[in-house]
Amino acid sequence: MTQAPERPEASGAPAPDTRRPGELTARELLRWTWRQLTSMRTALVLLLLLALAAVPGSVIPQSGVDALAVSRWKDSHPTLTPIYERLQLFSVYDSTWFAAIYLLLMVSLVGCILPRLRVYLTALRAQPPAAPSRLTRLPDHRVLQVDAAPDVVLDRARAHLRSGRYRLRRDDADPARRHEVAAEKGFLREAGNLLFHASLLIVLVGFAMGGMLGYQGGVIVVQGQTFSNTSSAYDDFDPGSLFGSEDLDPFQFTVDDFTVDWITEGSAFGTARGFNARLSYRDRIGAPQDSYDLRVNHPLTIDSTDVFLIGHGYAPRITVRDAEGNITYSGPTVFLPQDQTFLSFGVVKAPGGSGGAVGLEGLLYPTFALQGGDPTTVFPALGNPLISMSVFTGDLGLDNGVPQSVYALDTDNATQVMQPDDPSKPVRLDLELGETEMLPDGLGSVSFDGVDEWVRIQISKSPGKEIALLGVVLALAGLLGSLFVRPRRVWVRTRDQDGVTMVEVAVLDRSGGADLGEVLDDLAAALSGHPDPVTQGTTGSAASRRDQKEEA
Amino acid sequence: MSNAAWESLSNQAIAAAGVVYFLALLVHLAEWASLRQPGTSRAGRKAEALALSTAGGVSDGPVLTKVAEHGAGDGQDAVDEHRVALLGRLGVLLTIVAAGVHFVALLGRGMAADPNRVPWGNMYEFTISGTFFVTVIYLAMLKRHQLQWMAPLVVGFVVATLMVAVIWLHAAVAPLREALNSPWLVIHVVSAVIATGAFTVGGILSGMYLVKARTGERTTGPLARVPSLVVLDRTAYRIHAFAFPVWTFAVLITGPIWAHEAWSRYWNWDPKEVWAFITWVVYAAYLHARATAGWKGRNAAILALVGLATLWFNFIGINYFSTTSMHSYAAPAVEVVVTAPAVPGGA
Ligand code: HEM
User: Fold this and answer.
1) A488-497 and A180-185 as β-strands: parallel, antiparallel, unpaired?
2) Measured between alpha carbons, how far is residue A440 from residues A330, A389, A413, A428, B301 in Å?
3) What is d(CA A359, CA A416) in angstroms, rounded to the nearest whole number?
4) pLDDT 10s digit of each residue in chain B, 347 long?
5) Do A462 and B333 touch (CB under 8 A)?
6) For chain A, which terminal residue's Cβ has fewer other Cβ atoms within 10 angstroms, N or C?
């Protein structure tokens, strides 16, 4: 089956002598280890280990995939968390033990292909092997009687084999081999196999480059705003270990417009058919401006950085004024969609005006309606936007210097504002577009001036992705050669028997299980010089004989 | 035709295909039942011996003699043999008809969507497409690899899976989420589905290998019709050898290209990707095992089944149990964003 030398594992240990294993010299031990490591069986076991090691990462949340899920998991499993952390189970694919497995596999791979490469190169230069002395001993052979001179038959054989892209053995000098033709083809099988295995190394290199020299980042940009590519501009930024912020391409872009193509009828009512964010961008400050329709599946590439549209939502424009009419907060505020209806949650933090700080927390209903008395949104587009907010005042933690989330209000030390006429009921601000409402206790007023849209942009640089792609494509090409090319040897020998030319032909397929009968038929036809050969004498096919035996 | 008309056509076609598959199954079972009678088992085995010799492509003296010798057997044998062959052909014919109707069902799903699209937007569609390719691959390999004996297994599998699809997975036609609307997705899923179909057929062969390795060779009963271990192993290998590069193309080339365009990451260790990778590695191990001393045969067949298990787990298990998978069909149109919150003016 295999052309690779299958190393006898048992004899991997040096000299079956009287010494116990403990008495191996260091060099012998090293050689023994190397042989073990590069054996087919080790490769197999390592492959299975790799498959097994990949499993936990699909069950346990991974910080590289979903950081939020990881922190949620940690919160609900306080005892397991330290153990899991020590085992690096939250980043399985960057863990030392996962790396150990695939690096061992790669070492084994190199140790495996280098010797095979040497063997292969020698084989390439070598002649096809001469015919064995008794062709009829081979499992797949045929004996023909042909009405032509032996030399004519041999010439036919050479022509046929050459047209079948066989390499012929040159035996001109050897009188003993004057009546023989030996040919071989299918070298590409081993070449394909070597290419496949070597390409895996290329893939690994490309993949590693992406992990170390690249980065991912995400940012929410409100319509009309401009993003400049510096690490501080990102909401989240995940650089590779060798990535420095000086590697960021100095582009900038503005989100001019964002449109969603909503489906307004049928079973898919309320879902989106498409999204389009119109960007104007510059490669660097001062460069000429270009524009691009950024859509899902249609990233924008600037230099070697890719810009993707992966999410969207609403940013209500809310203005907070203190009792004297001074604006303490104003502008589009990013609200996060809670589900597919785009019911969105957000907070406003207005630092102290004349009446103290004001915090708002609540929901945006894109198309507000009362259904059975309950407030809901009936469509995700902005049909009848309404915000409904609770109000807090006091210490919102805005001044103590501790970093805060812009999507959550720290109400631990704050007090909720209650209705003046019924202090048991909290104040609820329900504002339609354009409305303003006064707050009690001299806190001022809140206006709902409009709604902007925001887009979530993912920006990434993955150097080496072309290398990885090249690697898999080469691997696939090699694999096809390795699986479908059939290495084959053919021998023809003529014999002059009382003026009659007897021809023996034999075929050997080293990949096993091929249709050798057909090959023999073709060859026999070509040798006879006519399409339907007269087949005489014995034929043999080990394959079918073996099958019969198993049948019996 | 309106979209609704296409959709109901598709639903009816699936039902009809299910019925025809079921008929094909019955016919094939009848074919096998005829084989059970001791008199006929010889006929069956004889047909197989002939099949084997042609499978090897060798016009082989001894086999031909053997057939000739048996062909002169008693009349009853000939009648039974005739019936078995007739039922076999009828079963295949019904399977072909069912596959045709099955195809109409797929076409209907695609035409019912607006805009028209390939029919694999959800699990229901993926399942009916996958089973279609199981049938097609079986039919395509039927002649070349002499797979007649597999008919009840393959058709039975398809009927059962279609039933599951219709009863539990059925969903109304919906437009694709935009992320799924990419030419790369079409190529990615077509190749993944084809590979899944081929791996499934290969897995059935490896399963039979294990069954047969346990029970040993039989001269009577249904198992007598199953080819020898050597042939099973070789045929299973050939089908896996076809499926593996297709799978490589699907999950390691087109998948990452598409993921890169849609999500900015060509490989993200998302659970679906992890399991596609696991499947790939296990099948690579299978191919290795066939060339490794001590792993040929039984262990290799077990690996093939492990590979198949990971493949189907990925399809069924991950879609249902994983909430983090981007491939989860339940995911909202565009990922709802909840990210590590930023500090105004901060990092
Ligand atoms: C990175 C891990 C590896 C993967 C994914 C892998 C994958 C494969 C695949 C898919 C095949 C089937 C192609 C064919 O049959 O020609 C194969 C064949 C082969 N591999 Fe690997 N391999 C790996 C590592 C190794 C190592 C470390 C060795 C050395 C011990 C090795 C030696 C071989 C040999 C000799 C064959 C030819 C088998 C035959 O002729 O059927 N492989 N490998």
Assistant:
1) antiparallel
2) 20, 14, 20, 11, 77
3) 9
4) 677 788 888 888 999 999 999 999 999 888 887 765 544 444 444 444 444 333 333 333 333 333 333 444 455 666 677 888 888 889 999 999 999 999 999 888 888 776 666 666 677 888 888 899 999 999 988 887 778 888 889 999 999 999 988 888 877 776 666 666 678 888 888 899 899 989 999 999 999 999 888 887 776 666 777 788 888 888 899 899 999 999 999 999 999 998 888 777 888 888 888 999 999 999 999 999 988 877 888 899 999 999 999 998 887 776 665 544 444 333 333 333 322 222 222 22
5) no
6) C
Q: Which two tokens stand for residue A450?
A: 């409009």
Which of A546, A98, A550 shows the shortest CA–CA distance to B228?
A: A550
Q: Which of B234, B269, B323 to mutate to test the interface with A (most CBs of A within 10 A)?
A: B269
Asked if A44 and B289 come within 8 Å (Cβ–Cβ), the reply is yes
Q: Taking the domains of chain A in order of start, what are their residue ranges?
A: 26-123, 138-185+486-542, 212-312+458-477, 315-457
Residue B290 CA, closest ligand 1 atom number: 41
CA of A513 to the centre of ligand 1 (A): 19
Touching A: B residues 238-297, CB under 8 Å: 238, 241, 244-245, 248-249, 252-253, 256-258, 260-271, 274-275, 277-278, 281-282, 284-285, 288-295
Expressed in angstroms and rounded, the spacing between residue A506 Cα and the centre of ligand 1 is 29
Nearest alpha carbon to residue A34 among A114, A121, A100, A123 = A114
Tell me the chain A residues in contact with residue B253 when contact means C-beta distances shorter than 8 Å. 469, 472-473, 476
CA nearest neighbour of A135 among A144, A148, A124:
A144
> Is there a contact between B10 and B108 (Cβ–Cβ < 8 Å)?
yes
This model of the complex carries an ipTM of 0.80
Pairwise CA distance, residues B202 & A373, whole Å? 59
One-letter amino acid identity for A226? T
Q: Which residues have CB under 8 Å from B91's CB, separation 6+?
A: B24, B27, B28, B31, B151, B155
- DSSP for A239-295? E-TT--GGGS---EEEEEEEEEEE--SSTTTT-EEEEEEEEEEESSTTSPPEEEEEB
Burial of residue A265 (number of CB atoms within 10 Å: 0-12, 13-18, 19+):
exposed
Amino acid present at B170: H
Query: Which residues are CB-neighbours of A258 under 8 A, at least 6 positions away?
Result: A223, A275, A276, A277, A278, A312, A453, A454, A455
**Nearest C-alpha in A relative to B269:** A65
Token look-up 């990615």 returns B188
Asked, as a colleague might, if the bond just before B115 is cis with ω within 30 of 0, I would say yes
Beta strands in A67-113 (DSSP E): none
Residues in B touching A113 (Cβ below 8 Å): none
pTM of the model: 0.80
Class of the CATH domain delimited by A138-185+486-542: alpha beta
Q: Is A525 in the pocket of ligand 1 (CB under 6 A)?
A: no
**Separation CA A187–CA A168 (nearest Å):** 13
Task: Using alpha carbons, list the distances in angstroms from residue B239 to A190, B201, B242, B302.
Answer: 20, 8, 5, 16
A-chain residues within 8 Å CB-CB of B288?
A: 40, 43-44, 47
Distance CA B266, CA B257 (A): 6
Residues near A266 by beta carbon (within 8 Å), at least 6 away in sequence:
B3, B114
**CA-CA distance, A430 to A432, in Å (whole number)?**
7
Residue A186's Cα: distance from chain center in Å? 32
- Is residue A312 within 8 Å of residue A325, measured between CB atoms? no
Which long-range contacts does A81-86 make (Cβ < 8 Å, 24+ apart)?
A: A84/A60
Which residue's entry shows tokens 């009968």? Answer: A517
